[in-house]
Hints:
Chain A is an alpha+beta fold. In chain A, strand 7 (about 110-115) and strand 8 (about 120-125) form a beta hairpin. Chain A is globular and about 80 Å long. Chain B has helices at about 25-30, 55, 60-65, 185-200, 205-215, 235-240, 310-330, 350-360, 370-375, 380-385, 385-405, 420-435, 440-455, 460, 475-490, 500-510, 520-535, 555-560, 575-580, 590-595, 610-615, 630-645, 665-670, 680-710, 720-725, 755-770, and strands spanning about 75-85, 95-105, 105-110, 135, 140-145, 150, 165-170, 175, 250, 270, 290-295, 300-305, 335-340, 410-415. Chain B is globular. Chain A: InterPro entries: MTMR12-like_C (IPR022587), Myotubularin (IPR030564), Myotubularin-like_Pase_dom (IPR010569), Prot-tyrosine_phosphatase-like (IPR029021).
Amino acid sequence: MWWGGRGQSFNIAPQKEEPEMGLSGPKSVQGSRMPERRSRQLGSCMSSGCLPGEQILAWAPGMRKGLEPELPGTLICTNLRVTFQPCGWQRSQETPLSSEYDFALVNVGRVEAVSGLSRIQLLRPGSLLKFIPEEILIHGRDFRLLRVGFEAGGLEPQAFQVTMAIVQARAQSRQAQQYAGITLSKAGQRSSSRKPPIPLLEILEDWETERKKQGAKGWRVSTVNERFDVATSLPRYFWVPNRTLDNEIRRAFGHFHQGRGPRLSWHHPGGSDLLRCGGFYTASDPNKEDIRTVELMLQAGHSDVVLVDTMDELPSLADVQLAHLRLRDLCLPDSSVAEDKWLSALEGTRWLDYVRSCLRKASDISVLVTSRVRSVVLQERGDRDFNGLLSSLVQLLSAPEARTLLGFQSLVQREWVAAGHPFLTRLGGTGASEEAPVFLLFLDCVWQLLQQFPAEFEFSEFFLLALQDSVRVPDTLTFLRDTPWERGKQSGQLNSYTQVYTPGYSQPSAGNSVNQKLSVWDWDLRYSNEQILQFHNPGYDPEHCPGSWLPRQQPSFMVPGPPSSVWLFSRGALTPLHQLCPWRDSPSLLAVSSRWLPRPAISSESLADQEWGLPSHWGACPLPPGLLLPGYLGPQIRLWRRCYLRGRPEVQMGLSAPTVSGLQDELSHLQELLRKWTPRISPEDHSKKRDPNTILSQSC
Amino acid sequence: MRAVPRPPLPWGWAEPQPPVLVAAATAGARVAASAPARRCFPGRRYAGERGSRRWRRHQGAQALLRVVRAPRGEQLLCEASTVLKYVQEDSCQRGIYGKLVCTDFKIAFLGDDESALDNDETQFKNKVIGENDITLHCVDQIYGVFDEKKKTLFGQLKKYPEKLIIHCKDLRVFHFCLRYTKEEEVKRIVSGIIHHTQAPKLLKRLFLFSYAAAARNSTATDPKNHTVMFETLQDWCWELERTKGNMKYKAVRVNEGYRVSERLPEYFVVPTPLPEEDVPRFQGHGIPMWCWSCHNGCALLKMSALPKEQDDAVLQVQKSFLDGVYKTIHRPPYEIVKTEDLSSSFLSLQDIQTAHSKFKQLFLIDNSTEFWDTDIKWFSLLESSSWLDIIRRCLKKAIEITECLEAQNMNVLLLEENASDLCCLISSLVQVMMDPHCRTRVGFQSLVQKEWIMGGHCFLDRCNHLRQSDKEEVPVFLLFLDCVWQLVHQHPPAFEFTETYLTVLSDSLYIPIFSTFFFNSPHQKDTNMGRESQDTQGKPLNLLTVWDWSVQFEPKAQTLLKNPLYVEKPKLDKGQRKGMRFKHQRQLSLPLTQSKSSPKRGFFREETDHLIKNLLGKRISKLINSSDELQDNFREFYDSWHSKPTDYHGLLLPHIEGPEIKVWAQRYLRWIPEAQILGGGRVATMSKLLEMMEEVQSLQEKIDERHHGQVALQAEASSLLRASARLSSLFPFALLQRHSSKPVLPTSGWKALGDEEDLARREDESVDVGDL
């Protein structure tokens, strides 16, 4: 097998002839005993696409259907992916991992075998195929559909084998999760001191740098979870108020669900803090000191605290999953919805409704954060799903930095990856029932923002698409583990594993092992430079509104709150609360359910008027620069067509011509022309040479 | 998610405490609402003002109103002072006091606050209609509020309302509170408004005529307007020549002076072998009339059906006549003619009317509560109006016809009862798709002129300008504009005009100073103008056409009607090209081929050449019933076009799948403050675009200077876009800028939360869910 990369190339013995190939059962052995002429013809074709460590389990010649005209080729099942290779097609060497014809095994959703007109079998893991299939339908979780019809004429056993191989490989990939080991790619060819494109927040310094960048003075990095003994789902390091001691934190966190106590998410330059935490662990019986600590941590030095009930008005995990499944059914090319019923079917999925409620809530919270110096605490029972979603959205809305390419990647790394969003479970990687694509919901929300504010984001729709796709490509650990702890554990093995395939690879020292880690943010693993260039939004215009970059301190926007007020934000309104913690007065469980009850206020109207809303002088002056308020009306929430309708050929062809980028091409062409004609570089010539490497590897 | 509808909003039109005037001068300046008086044709001198006696009588009142200039011939009918107009800006309760006046041209609200008069920000202002002006023809429905109950107002009133709600045809909604107005004035203004907007009118009483009469003496300079009006034989000959249709078709003058039919224009085009004597036999019915010729020689024809007869003998005559006609056009050089009967197998006007009235209700919103209630079910409401489906069907029909003309080399004959509704719609759509000339501004205007104005579309009836019959009111032209909008939206670089152009064009339907949309036929227009001229000074009336955009917009504002992305078709001739250079709005610096093959189709797709065909094969699922051969042809044509890169100067087809037909957001959402996205929307991209265009232009200049030593041309990017710091998605129609971000949330927090039990239950629920 040949694998060529930039600068270097190296050979790996063809996997087909290795005896180890039998690992996955007799089928692959049979597979290699294919008819002689076919074998020769297909040999080069198939192997060209293989990655190091990838094994071909079975293959069969077939005809891709559904898209016209039909395309002859070969359906191949490896231990990494199912791929359909059209005849004469060469895999691009630049981007060996992603192609239109690939379905990573994680991505394989429903598999159906069809024979004749009437026999259709849904193939579940472990089920046995009852007939020789004439056609196989592979539904991708990423809204694609692969239909391959098998040729008749002596090759039926192969069709049978490849179908069974797909079913088995998919089942195995779930259980063993071995694919993570196949992190291969170009990493090996790189120099050993590859710096992660963004801080991965696995070391103390990253947290410290980020804290300083945000200007969070009252906060420090706590190392209390360095050995993951407070909570495995928490990152090693997190931010806590300066004045709290580590042992206090350890005790206080014990009173929260799964040990996820209040931590700083983001410090607004105006002074507000956005915190997130899990639900109060109601069975515990904290002493007074602990309660005091918890309260201090929630207040974070502010007199005004708003507890946000995250799950209120948001869909449950099951809702999200159901909506996503429905949306997929609707968007797959074989959906049976009539054109004139499309809109109500879309509404029926409720996906857009959920997108809308997320945006609405995030918009409300960002107003809470921006309008007054206060501490806003997002509280979700598990603190691993919607807290991350809301906190990231709030930051996107209120911090222009988060809307840059680097800023967005660090945001996702911090609020999702490091914060312990259970990616593997939520994306269905474990086969557990808790599948719910919360992260994809988030990406959809971001896309909506991108639609609404095309000049405010440095990244483009294509970047979001690439991120969306990466979720299903098993080449880095970023989305393949549930907790930072598991990720850390695995990456050690990963290092030694990659060495096997890396001749001339220098022995990594213990110190720089962190640097060796690959993350999803190493885009050049999967995408060509040309594609990476497309991650940039040509319409991005940070100077679009002068002063959109928030100066560090803007006290003028911030009005101090009334002394010690505690509020609950729920159902779009603020309610006064007696106390922050549920335990103080009556530690019994019975009291818990009533803890949110509002205290009867003497004059609710006046209180509310005084409290809620923005400083009165906002009426006359424009919004605080940099704050985006998204629209979330029915007509404004759109379907992300390029993402969800990608299975439909008619939608794939770019509807919106990239007019801005076309102009940009024209611009650079003209500049080029002018430069050629001008002996010296004219001062007006501000052509920007864009190189993906410099773009993506600038450190924050 | 618990689908709890949001509680009513704080500002839900509760009565503000009087007097809630806009206090701060700064705030007042922003309420540009109070600047209406000067909107009456500023910048024009009105010699005719003094001409009217009644005008003089009202001069006292006018002075009070500070109406310095009004449209010529405008007469004040009634007025009321201390009227409170609700301002939708902001989420707080607010109103402006002012005068509500009703003239024979419009209903206008003149704010008391004068400060706004000095406010000369560069906005996209209409010079004729201010933001607080409603022309009488633009009024759709009038409601009165009696003790919190909303009722439709019509006819004689016994009781006068406290509040007046006016729904406009351009989807604005006005709320006027009359509580602080004198009873006498209330009576006068309410009955005046009702009478003048809803009572049937005579054609001669249209404001159009008083305006034209008053303007008679002013020498209107004919603006540089290249729109072909199709009022002369020459115009038709040019059009024949342009489309190379003159081989098989001839322009005839049979109907000169409307001798044959008052329905038809004076000049039109028929197949060359058709004897001219045939035309008058059924007053032009049954005669195939030429619309347009395709590059391959096939033509689009239309024909109005022969009158329905019971008598067998007459039927026989009709039949033989038609046979004769068909024989003529079936013989060479015409080859095959396909007849498309639009009145039997296609949409009915009734469908269009019903759909539109349902559809517009989605946007005519009285208060926010109502809005949020409907918002939850947005998509199903939208679907149930079936307006989008009607658009889809029109586009589909147009594609089918395009397929016949383009792919099958067949002539197509559109057949309709009067050939003046759906015929106009379909034939213009086909031309927009097939003829790149129709996608320029001048070309589009000429097209409207040819197919709609000369085609005898009954604008007067269809818009119900005279309030004579609600049944006849069918927004066919609006439907056409919406179809074109879909095309503009899907292929922006192919059009010289923008969606804003279409929006203001749709608004112009209701401005009665333009003659364009106020007649049922050219005959009606000519006769009414002619008689007038005999009565008085023997000089024909000087009617404005809507195509003279300078009447409505300053040159600066007009730049927004022009699509900066549009690139004119490059001329092949090199010598000519250099000369032409500066006439072009913009030229491609890159070779055209490059822009064509740029990898815009699909993202991250390998686009090796031999594969492209395979990859791009496509189908329209569901839409097509594959059993039908015709449908197969259609599908193949549609698929193959969409699988090729788009040539913006060639054939242009829309996507018509379910998700691709969209709501014309600019037109329908522009007055809804909740729909505003501050600093967002397409305009954000536009301003960036313009910036880049300027850069491209300046570089082009440099290159030209260097090479040809030619004079630089002016950069014309709109300064409108750059002036304002942060534009909103409603630009350029954002009259009510949402200045604060006061969140749309209820203020009294905990009433909304419900009672204790409810809360406790919810708490339990969330615990349960978490435990799972």
